[in-house]
Design goal:
mainly beta, Rieske Iron-sulfur Protein, 2 helices, globular, binds FE2/S2 (inorganic) cluster, 2 iron, 2 sulfur cluster binding, metal-binding
Length: 142
């Protein structure tokens, strides 16, 4: 069986996992640049679970699938790429400064909640994701 046929038999998902095992980064210290901005995002977070606990409080955030999911200071759920639009490190976090912004500790880029750059570190907007709350399930998607 040839490699192509083997991969076809596995199915697209399994083939992808075999061919690109480190696509989301295999760094030990989590500080390697050049990571791809997350695409195809569509996941849910149970706000009653341990994973979702930080999202109970305004200003809290979690990291999942290279997405920063936050509850902003007004109590709304927002989400953005954890991979920075400057040099693609995974250092973007939600911080409570300036009414709640995204901040990348690698070089200090700051972005508002629409992804608009707030300083001169980069002019590239940060990718933003949609959120939808149904009961205690928060969906994050493109
Ligand atoms: S990689 Fe985020 S500020 Fe440079």
């Amino acid at each position: 069986m040839e490699r192509k046929q083997f991969l076809q038999n596995l199915g697209a998902g399994a083939a992808f996992a075999l061919v690109f095992p480190c696509l989301n980064g295999c760094s030990k210290d989590g500080a390697v640049g050049g990571l791809p901005v997350p695409t195809g995002i569509d996941f849910t977070v149970d706000l009653d679970s341990q994973e979702g606990a930080p999202l109970q409080n305004n200003g809290g955030f979690i990291l999942k699938q290279f997405v920063v999911v936050a509850k902003n200071l007004e109590g709304q759920y927002v989400a953005a790429s954890q991979v920075c639009s400057h040099q693609q490190t995974e250092e973007v976090r939600f911080v409570e400064n300036d009414g709640g912004i995204y901040y990348c500790s690698a070089h200090g880029a700051r972005f508002d909640q629409t992804g608009k750059p707030l300083n001169s570190i980069t002019s590239n907007p940060l990718k933003i994701f949609q959120t939808e709350l149904t009961g205690n399930l928060l969906r994050v998607f493109e």
